[in-house]
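Changelog note: in this version the structure field was regenerated for every chain. One regenerated record is shown below for reference.
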Amino acid sequence: MSADRGHNGLLEQFDAAYGQVTADRRDIYGAPEDTYRRIATLRSVVDECQDPQVREILGMVVTKVARLVQTPEHLDSWVDVAGYARCGVMLLNDRS
């Protein structure tokens, strides 16, 4: 198999998966412009956090919160929030 054919096969697989994920996400999370506006608003508060690692974790939490505003019944986002919260506690625990 030539390198070009292998790369094209991967690109075709990627494009097919990308199309499915994009469609699914719009159905679940709504219009991207609304989601990103919410995230930017919430991140502006999170960016005040002086600790860069905690700030990043909080950024992930508010990304999920912004999505939950659109679809509060989406359990996966609630689980993700809990997971990021646990990561924050793990970080703080490792520091002590």
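Spot check on this record: Residues 31-95 form one domain. The chain has two domains: 1-29, 31-95.
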